[in-house]
Each structure stands twice: as C-alpha cells, then as structure tokens.
C-alpha cells in the first residue's frame, strides 16, 4: 500500500459530470485501489451548498481511500499543492451565444485557473481540461502557467476514442475489449477525426484489421466518422442532458493511464501540446495517439497518413488555429 | 471565500471485503490477472478465474432510466458487482414514456467502452426484460406524489410488483437473485415473492437495507474517530423505513484502541444516550437529510449499496463479518415467518444465512416489535 497521498482537484464539482466522476475517484478506479487521495472539490460559490449533499453521499458509501475532502470556490485554495487538476467547470453555451462568445468567456476562466495552477500547484501537477472548448481552454491554461511543463497539460479526447471503439465493436459484432488502437486526432469538436487504419481486432483466429472485421469501407469512411463526431449531440437529444457518466468514465481512463501507464502496444488518445509531430503546428493542443510509461506520454510516431487523413488533419488544425486567435485576442 | 474541510472516515468497502481487487489491480487494467481472494465463497454462476472464458450473466435493472440506475448501471458495467472476470449482459427496463432517455443510457454505456459489458437489452416490454435473467435489481417503483397517502403508494406498487413477481416466475432463471430497492422495499419484495411462490424459492428475494447499514457505520466511525474499515457487524433490523433499527449491540471496532485489539462499539462509544437519542434517529432520517441538501434523492450512495448487497451475496462475506439484508423471515429472533425483514446475515456460495444467537437488548426488542408491527400493517393494507 502506497503511503503518499495524492492531491486531486475537480472543478465544476457540483455538476452532472462531477457527480459521476467523484465516485469513480473515491472508489479507486482512477488511481488504483491502493492510492489514498485528498480530494478538493471546486465550484462557483452559489453551487457549494449542493456539494454538501454529495459529501454526505460519499460518507454513506464507506470508501476506504478518501482521507480528506475540501470544498472551495477559491482557485488559490483549490490548487494548492495539487498533483492532478481535472478542470470540468467552464462556461456552458447559452442560447443565442456565438462560438466566439463561448471561446472568450472560457478564455477568461482558464486564464485565471492557469495562473492559479502556476502559482500554487506542484510543478509536477498534471492537468486535464474537460470543459469545452477543451483544446483551446487547455491551451489558455498552459500559456498562463509557464512554471509547469507544457507536457503536463492535456484535454479530454478519450471520450471520442471510447465512442469510436464502441462503434467499431458494435459494427463488427465483437466485444469492445477486443478492439485496439482506434485513434482520434485533433480538436474535441465536430472536426475530430476517428481513425481506424492502425487499429486491429483480436479474434480467436488471430488479429484482423478493422477494415477486415467490419467489411464495409464505405461505412468506415463516412457513417462511422460522422457518428463519432456527432455523438455528443445524439446523447443530449436522447437524454435531454449532456453525457455525464460516459464522460466521467473517459476522464477516469485518461488519468488512470497517465498515472499508471498503458499496456504494451496499446495506443490511447490525448489532447496534448503539439511538438510538430505529423506536421501539426506547435502552439496548439491537438489529440494524438500516445503510449504512456512512468507517468510520461510519448506521441506514437511513424503512423501512415493518407490523403483523406491529411485533409481531415488540416481541417481540424485550421479550426484550432482560428479558435486560438479568437481566444487570445483578449 | 468560504471553504469547508471535512473529514471522511473509512470502512473497508467492497474493494477489500470480498477481495475483488486481489493484488491491488484496477479492473480497467487489461493486465488484471490476480485471482479473487476467496473464489470458493462465490456463487457457482460467477466466474472467478482470470483464465476462463465465461458466459455472461444476465442482470435486469428496472427503473433503468432513473437517477439511481444512472449511477448503478455504470458500476455494474465496470465489474464492481460480480468481480473483474465476469462479463455482464445488462437488461434495462422502464416505462414507454422513458424510451428515449433509456436509449441515451444505452449510448453512454456503449461509449464507456467497458470490457466486461457483453451487451445490453433495453426494453419497455416485461417479457423481454425478464427473459433468462439471473439477477434482478428492482429499482423502479411508483414514486410518491404530492398529496399521496402511504396506502395509495402501497396499492400502486402492489400491482407493479405482482406483475413483476409473475414475470420472474415465468421468464427468469430458477436461481434468480432478486433485490428490491423501490419503496416500500420490504413490502414490494413480499408481494413479488408471493406472486412467484409456486416457482421460485422465497430465499431468492431480498430488499435493500445496506444503505442504512453503510450510513450507520459511517456515523459510528466518525463518532469514535476511526477509519470506516475498522467498524464491523453493525446491523440494521426490520423495515427500510423510519422504524428501521440500527443496532450496534454486537458491533466491534478492530485495531482499537491500538493495533491487534478489538473493542465493542458500545464500549468505544461509551454514550448510550447518544446511541439511543441521536445515532438511531440520524440513521433513520439520513435519506431526508440528503434530499434536503441535494434537492434530489440519494442516487450514487444507493447505487453503491445495491452493488455491495449483491456483491456480498454472490461473492461471499468475510469470515466473522455480517451484512444487513432484508430477507423472508424464517422465525429467527421471533420475527413472524414470511415477513421481509432486515437481519444480519452471512453469505457463502450464493446463499445467505441469518446469524443466530446475537444479543438483543430490551431497548432493541421494543424497536423490533415496532418495526414488525409496521410491516404487518403494510401487508394488511394490501388489496386482497
């Protein structure tokens, strides 16, 4: 049993995703069943009362791993000595809001949080931004936290990867656990590109390409991509609420793998700052396939990029650059 | 800015009680190969070996579009209920009005990419829902509306649970394990059991008091200032209602006051007045307190209790440790036979057995009488 305690901060903790996520964390699913946690729950002041009820429920679960829970609206207090910061809280899109308004409102929030992380979190703090526009919010936080390495900032695209994997599994009529190395590239938006070409399916008879298992390249080029890109809206349409539990699961997966490493040969997708790999310009947060060992991710190199993929990468890159320009014009 | 630091005390929850994580492996790790701690204690239906290629177990959740189910189904899909080596097919039942929401839940279950989720059957049709199931989690019930009397609630639910009891008898596996959560839980379980009487043993049926037990344990741990993991054998007797009886007479605290020593809770707390006048009412009223704070009913903690109850039933309880389950009384402790009443039990090989010979104080006896009377009157109020 490890004796150190991890300081884990969740912002937007009073919301829907927070409710699912908090219980994943305290159950041990994020860091393993041996890791004790000090949990910091942050939200805006009017929401703090609601968190008290959540804490009552955590008590009523009798989990062994949580040593202390702090509730606060103050970023300075929240991020003090943080090891992991999961930034779920952001300005939601309201009716009549243009994308530029959304970008600007969130840029302010993430500027403040980036500075607070810079000044109070551990230098080794790892940051996962979930609130949309996730990639650009992560970028804002990163540029405002020069004391923390760029590699410690990420945004969530694991949900898109999990969704893509599930679509392949359903189509190929296999278990999702047998579908490997489905990647998502770029922006967590309608331009995200789910890429099956380096993936494979483990069948009793041996490995199969995705194309071989699905046997429908037209579906793979078109419907598969569109379904993954629009999945968020499809869930809202059915539930009348945004994805919460599946988002919480993806957050759990992202942090779990970042902390504990990926299995040999498995790629996972993370939005991270571009180092120029695949000719993606640096200075943006872009979803790449990575492997993780000893808490450090490495972008998988040398994957083939065909003409169709290049077009998709260009489109999502262009979108990210224009988001960056709008957000930074403050 | 205000902030509150709260100390959360601990209990050995499901993670270590039944050794699900044996070897400290997280179930999300594809490398989880450690065997379960006590596979011989498990129900024969459950696969406990990392090397086998098991058949999935079929689990039905009713009220599947609701709040509790939203927390519950993802916990089941991630392996919390049956361990890391048992795949699951989730049957999800709700009323036709909730079909779209149910579709959304299925989407999110798929989007979770859970290795142990072998499939989903989402339906508003009772036959489809109950077909071939081996575990039944009856979360759905008719909710109490404003102005509704308790007797109205009993009648509305009697119809639902009579129909579902009949469906269990007709479509479910003979060994189906049933946990009723929807309130009034004990009486709903009684009705379902009665409706299935000709086909299913009454020992298949139970109702949830594990949430009350968890709440009681948490409060004792906080009072004494020990981790929740050290507080053992707190019992909940009776009806899952305001007459429930949280009882620490036979409860102990391990490694207290120092490692290697075990102290009765009564001694460690050393305050009968607090136990009788504060502790018991606090446990009884906790549900209302959570609603007041959240503006919503307990969902995640209820889901956690459902998982704990069923997991201990199918994977077995640790030697010397008891858990609370509302089951059909066999006359133990002079509780009238046939009532669905919460007792302290132990579980092994998929069977529960009521712990015999526990001390019942006169104070507790009065409370047992009161909760028995309430249960009897609920049954008497049922339509004939």
Account of the protein in words:
Chain A: The active site is at 188 (proton acceptor). Chain A: It catalyses: (S)-malate + NAD(+) = oxaloacetate + NADH + H(+). Chain A: Its EC number is 1.1.1.37. Chain A: Belongs to the LDH/MDH superfamily. MDH type 2 family. The complex is a heterodimer of chains A (330) and B (384). Helices cover 42% and strands 20% of the residues of chain A. With 330 residues, chain A is of the alpha/beta class. Chain A has 2 domains: 6-155, Rossmann fold (3-Layer(aba) Sandwich), CATH 3.40.50.720; 158-328, L-2-Hydroxyisocaproate Dehydrogenase, Chain A, domain 2 (Alpha-Beta Complex). In chain A, a hairpin with a 2-residue loop joins β10 (200-203) and β11 (206-209). The longest helix of chain A has 22 residues, at 99-120. The mean pLDDT of chain A is 95. With 384 residues, chain B is of the alpha/beta class. Chain B folds into 2 domains: 2-207, 3-Layer(aba) Sandwich (Rossmann fold), CATH 3.40.50.720; 210-381, Lactate dehydrogenase/glycoside hydrolase, family 4, C-terminal (L-2-Hydroxyisocaproate Dehydrogenase, Chain A, domain 2, Alpha-Beta Complex). Chain B is built from 11 helices and 15 strands. In chain B, the strands form 3 sheets. Chain B has a 9-stranded mixed sheet with strand order 4-3-2-5-6-7-13-14-15. In chain B, α2 (67-77) packs across α10 (300-315) and α7 (210-224) crosses α9 (272-294). Chain B is globular. The termini of chain B are far apart. Residues 1-33 of chain B have low confidence and may be disordered. The interface between A and B is large, with 70 and 71 residues. β3 (66-72) of chain A pairs antiparallel with β1 of chain B, so a sheet runs across the interface.
Briefly, what is this?
With 330 residues, chain A is of the alpha/beta class. In chain A, 42% of the residues lie in helices and 20% in strands. The model of chain A has no long low-confidence stretch (mean pLDDT 95).
């Amino acid at each position: 049993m490890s004796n150190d305690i991890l300081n884990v901060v969740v912002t937007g903790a009073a919301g829907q995703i927070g409710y699912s996520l908090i219980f994943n964390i305290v159950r041990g699913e994020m860091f393993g069943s041996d890791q004790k946690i000090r949990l910091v729950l942050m939200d805006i002041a009017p929401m703090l009362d609601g968190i008290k009820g959540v804490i009552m429920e955590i008590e009523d679960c009798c989990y062994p791993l949580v040593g202390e829970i702090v509730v606060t609206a103050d970023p300075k207090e929240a991020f003090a000595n943080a090891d992991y910061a999961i930034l779920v809280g952001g300005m939601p899109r309201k009716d009549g809001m243009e994308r530029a308004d959304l970008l600007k409102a969130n840029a302010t929030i993430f500027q403040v949080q980036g500075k607070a992380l810079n000044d109070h979190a551990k230098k080794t703090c790892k940051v996962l931004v979930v609130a949309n526009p996730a990639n650009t919010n992560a970028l804002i936080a990163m540029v405002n936290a020069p004391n923390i390495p760029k590699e410690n900032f990420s945004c969530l695209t694991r949900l898109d990867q999990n969704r893509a994997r599930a679509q392949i599994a359903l189509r190929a009529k296999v278990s999702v656990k047998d579908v490997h190395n489905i990647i998502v590239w770029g922006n967590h938006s309608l331009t995200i590109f789910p890429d099956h070409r380096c993936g494979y399916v483990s069948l009793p008879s041996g490995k199969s390409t995705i194309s071989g298992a699905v046997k429908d390249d037209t579906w793979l080029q078109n419907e598969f991509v569109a379904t993954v890109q629009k999945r968020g809206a499809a869930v809202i349409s059915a539930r009348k609420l945004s994805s919460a539990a599946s988002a919480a699961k993806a957050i759990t997966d992202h942090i779990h793998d970042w902390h504990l490493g990926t299995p040999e040969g498995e790629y996972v997708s993370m939005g991270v700052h571009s180092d120029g790999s695949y000719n993606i310009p640096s200075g943006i947060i872009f979803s790449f396939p990575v492997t993780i060992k000893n808490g450090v991710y490495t972008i998988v190199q040398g994957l083939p990029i065909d003409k169709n993929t290049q077009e998709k990468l260009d489109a999502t890159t262009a979108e990210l650059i224009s988001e960056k320009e709008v957000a930074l014009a403050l | 800015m205000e902030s509150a630091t709260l100390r959360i005390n601990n209990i050995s929850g499901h993670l270590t009680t039944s050794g699900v994580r044996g070897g400290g492996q997280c179930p999300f790790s594809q490398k989880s190969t450690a065997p379960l701690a006590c596979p011989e204690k498990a129900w024969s239906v459950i696969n406990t070996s990392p090397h086998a290629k098991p058949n999935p177990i079929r689990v039905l959740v009713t009220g599947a579009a609701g709040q509790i189910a939203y927390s519950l189904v993802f916990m089941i899909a991630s392996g919390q209920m049956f361990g890391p080596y048992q795949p699951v097919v989730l049957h999800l039942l709700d009323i036709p009005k909730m079909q779209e929401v149910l579709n959304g839940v299925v989407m999110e279950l798929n989007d979770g990419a859970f290795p142990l989720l072998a499939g989903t059957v989402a339906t508003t049709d009772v036959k489809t829902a109950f077909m071939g199931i081996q575990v039944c989690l009856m979360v759905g019930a008719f909710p109490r509306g404003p102005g509704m009397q308790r007797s109205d609630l009993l009648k509305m639910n009697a119809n639902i649970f009579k129909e579902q009891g009949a469906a269990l008898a007709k479509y479910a596996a003979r060994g189906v394990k049933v946990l009723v959560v929807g309130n009034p839980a004990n009486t709903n379980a009684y009705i379902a059991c009665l409706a299935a009487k000709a086909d299913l043993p009454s020992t298949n049926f139970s109702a949830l008091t594990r949430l009350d037990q968890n709440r009681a344990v948490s409060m004792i741990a906080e009072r004494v200032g020990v981790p929740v993991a050290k507080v053992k054998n707190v019992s909940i007797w009776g009806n899952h209602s305001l007459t429930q009886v949280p009882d620490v007479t036979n409860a102990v605290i391990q490694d207290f006051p120092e490692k290697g020593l075990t102290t009765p809770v009564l001694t460690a707390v050393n305050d009968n007045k607090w136990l009788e006048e504060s502790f018991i009412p606090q446990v009884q009223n906790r549900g209302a307190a959570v609603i007041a704070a959240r503006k919503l009913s307990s969902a995640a903690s209820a889901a956690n209790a459902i998982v704990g109850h069923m997991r201990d039933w199918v994977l077995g309880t640790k030697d010397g440790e008891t858990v609370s389950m509302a089951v059909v009384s066999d006359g133990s402790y002079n509780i009238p036979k046939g009532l669905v009443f919460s007792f302290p039990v132990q579980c092994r090989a998929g069977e529960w057995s009521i712990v015999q010979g526990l001390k019942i104080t006169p104070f507790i006896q009065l409370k047992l009488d009161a909760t028995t009377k309430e249960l009897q009157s609920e049954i008497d109020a049922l339509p004939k």
